[in-house]
Amino acid sequence: MRGFEKYLALWVALCMGLGLLLSQTVPGVSEAIDSWQVRGVSVPIGICLFLMMYPAMLNLQVAELRKLRANPKPILITLFSNWILAPLVALGLAALFLRGNEQLMVAVLLLGASPCTAMVLVWGKLAEGNQEQNVVNTSLNTLTIMVLYVPIVSLLTGLQNIPLDRVLLAISAGVFIGAPLVVGILSKRLLVRARGQDWFERVYRPVVGKVAIVALLLTLVVLFALNGEVLLHHADQLLLVSAPLLVGFAIVVGFNLLVTRVLRLRYREAIITTIIGSSSHFEIAIASAVAMYGVGSYAALGTTMGLFWEVPVMLSLVYLGKALRRRGFWLA
After folding, report:
1. How far apart are CA 89 and CA 80, in angstroms?
2. Which of 2, 216, 220, 274 pairs as cysteine with 256 (C-beta 3.0–4.6 A)?
3. Is 284 among the domain residues?
């Protein structure tokens, strides 16, 4: 699986291409997929997003949060980066690049206000970082996103005078974060009781993790099959939203690299801090955009482009981190 994850950027691009190909070669595919809805929510997208979210919720280990007192510095850096720096950077860049295009602005704000709780475990493993810190930090992110996501997005959109259905946003957060969280907690407790902790960690979680990546790729196929016509005829909009996303990555990654060096963190903690502090929870961003604006909206496509760019950026950060370690950028 590690080799598969190593080339995740390639699989992402191929699945996007497959979705576009289906939209152009299979008549009625987008209409057929879009017709499977419950109260305006796409069932295929909902299933895929749940399967992407559920494995992340299995990482929640509240007991591990007690370890924050032993080494709080990396966690404090990521909290600042995730909940203050990234949202403010997203706000500024959305206003700079996307003024007048409200849905794309919302897409950037949704991504900027959603710290990652899932894929960072993959990037951290590939970077050979401190995975114990990774679990602690993702557990903390899982809890904080339940409390802060809706208020932060509401605040950011309010500052730009963008009308937003806050009730629908809250429902989206409850369904796509709350439901997987509850199912994750209950299933973990029942499975550990029935089969033991060792079986859960060695067998169940790795299998579910593979399902999550497959669901991620299937989501891309479905999204791009649904939106093929819009994408091919409005590629300029995708290029437009890519500008603030890429500049935002550069600013936030650069900040985290610099601050972890200034504060003299060791490599294994510094690289995890940088990865978590620089990534976004694209699953909930996509889910929120789809719930509020629809599957074929610019908001949904904008958040999908966040995923498109995050994969190569994070993989590049893994290799950059290893190169900086060899050059003594951080403490050994």
Report:
1. 12
2. 274
3. yes
